[in-house]
Amino acid sequence: MTAVVASDSALARPAATRIAASLVDSVAGVLAGRREQIEVAAACVLAGGHLLIEDLPGVGKTLLAQSIAASVGGSFARVQGTSDLLPADVVGSLAPSPEGLGLHFRPGPVFANVVLFDELNRANPRTQSALLEVMEEGHVTVDGHTHPVPAPFVVVATQNPVESQGTYPLPEAQLDRFLVKLTVADPPADVERTIVRNHAQGFDPADLSSLSAVTTAEEVVEMQKHAQTIRVDEAIIGYIVELVRKTRDDRAIELGASPRASIALLKTAQVIAASEGRAFVTPDDVKPMVKPVLRHRVMLHPDAQLQGITADSRIDEFLRATPVPRVTG
Description:
Layout (H helix, E strand, L loop, with lengths): L2 E2 L8 H16 L6 H12 L4 E4 L6 H11 L4 E5 L6 H5 E5 L6 E5 L6 E5 L6 H13 L1 E4 L2 E4 L5 E6 L12 H4 L4 E3 L6 H12 L16 H11 L4 E2 H16 L3 E3 L3 H17 L7 H12 L4 E2 L1 H5 L4 H11 L8
Parallel strand pairs: 2-9, 2-10, 3-6, 6-9
Antiparallel strand pairs: 1-11, 4-5, 7-8, 12-13
Helix pairs in contact: 1-2, 8-10, 9-10, 9-11, 10-11, 11-13
């Protein structure tokens, strides 16, 4: 049976496992009771994708994004979404040269390895489009000149789904630029007690100075390359494609996921396999990433929404209905 394998990487398997585990452990040390979500977020970052974190206020979205940024080596920038934020405030603009000879390009905050964009849906559509363009292209073009962003380049964006006043929701085509959409949700009672206890003992979520980087930008790039070398059996490819195609044939879904979702599911599954120290992908590497990869790429019919159907509930049904292939390695 044939399999898909990309070019070789210089990163050894134990190093890949260390990078992934140290990133998850670092963030989990700050964000109590969120290990499952942290593992998904780490897989997204190490797959070279961009992460959208969405949920109600006060559940730790920004803290999760800040912790990821602090744990990943390299430069960091933060942007606060507001309605008057201009594209030039994000990607950069031409400014007078310090020598007084014409204009020179002044880079914006997107010229960092990790960019935290807080409350993305409060930025106006023009600014959102400018950010999403550089997310897709990996460079900024100003006055005919192209300026590449550094590698790795990861955007971690947050948004609040319940406040509509002063917000500009992202269209489906723009949501598709994010590899993964993560929901944080309210913590269980015992975890909430731990959070409150930590604050009572002086924990300040605004001060992450004690959280040092556990990897480097170069290691993250090598991990991204290494993940592409993980073997993917044809049966796994068929499993991924069947899961994604179910979103296009379901009556409750008005707009299904595109082939870009299949590629995203493949990449994140390869990262999980690499994190486990394996050279091949199994169905268990695919399953935990199905909802994070697909939930923001499907649009439900209004009738389905009135019936209380959610994207996650339909995806759960697809997982139950899709035969799981057997892969022996």
